[in-house]
Structure formats: structure tokens, C-alpha cells
From TrEMBL:
Residues 44-102 form the YCII-related domain. InterPro entries: Dimeric_a/b-barrel, YCII. It comes from the Bacteria. This is YCII-related domain-containing protein. PANTHER family: BLL7171 PROTEIN (PTHR35174:SF3), BLL7171 PROTEIN-RELATED (PTHR35174). Pfam families: YCII. The lineage of its organism: Bacteria, Pseudomonadati, Pseudomonadota, Betaproteobacteria, Burkholderiales. Belongs to the YciI family.
Length: 113
């Protein structure tokens, strides 16, 4: 069995309080229950707003330096994720499709090494 990251991507400026309704919450809860029942869910987590991100970069001298903001400048960010353990990429993608529908968002599926 391989573990896969199923990451939910959100556009910059996404506001959960405005964009997420009760129906979406129920669909995500149902998907989580289905994943638990299937025994594929290892871990799930939503992430704090991108504005609260901190990045640690190495200076020219090799010392770590903490700065405000995400590591990458992008028009999208990861808003939450699942770690699933499935028998195949095809199975992980099937869950990814369900996640995209429930979250109404683009989803990335990638295996852990």
C-alpha cells in the first residue's frame, strides 16, 4: 500500500466564511466518513489562512531566517489535505475526484516517496 497526499488548492483571496456553505460542510463530512469506513484515511487537516504563513529560508551564510508569508508567490495555495493509504494511484485518484467535488476545488494527488 502506498500513501498519497490529496491536496485541496484554493485561489488567493479565498474566504471560507463566504465561499463555504452548510452543504459543502456536509459533503466533506460525508467524504471523511466514507474514507474512514474504507480504511484509507491516515490523516486529514485544514490549514490556517495563507496570511498567517511563515517561511524559513536560509541566508547566504546558512543561518535560518523567518519571514512573513508563504514560501512561494502564487495565485493558489493549499487550503487543506488528506493523507490516504491506497492500493494504487487509480484508487487514490478516485478519492481525489470525490474530494474535488465535495470541496468544489482543484485537487492534487501525489504519492509519498
Amino acid at each position: 500500500m502506498t500513501q498519497y497526499l490529496v491536496a485541496i488548492h484554493r485561489p488567493l483571496g479565498y474566504a471560507p466564511a463566504v465561499s463555504e456553505d452548510d452543504a459543502m460542510g456536509r459533503e466533506i463530512d460525508a467524504l471523511n466518513a466514507e474514507m474512514r469506513a474504507a480504511g484509507v484515511r491516515v490523516f486529514v487537516g485544514g490549514l490556517a489562512p495563507i496570511e498567517s504563513a511563515k517561511s524559513v529560508r536560509l541566508t547566504a551564510g546558512g543561518a535560518p531566517s523567518v519571514t512573513d508569508g508563504p514560501y512561494l508567490e502564487s495565485k493558489e495555495f493549499v487550503g487543506g489535505f488528506w493523507v490516504l493509504e491506497t492500493a494504487s494511484l487509480a484508487e487514490a485518484l478516485a478519492w481525489g475526484r470525490k474530494a474535488a467535488v465535495a470541496c468544489r476545488a482543484q485537487v492534487e494527488v501525489r504519492a509519498f516517496l
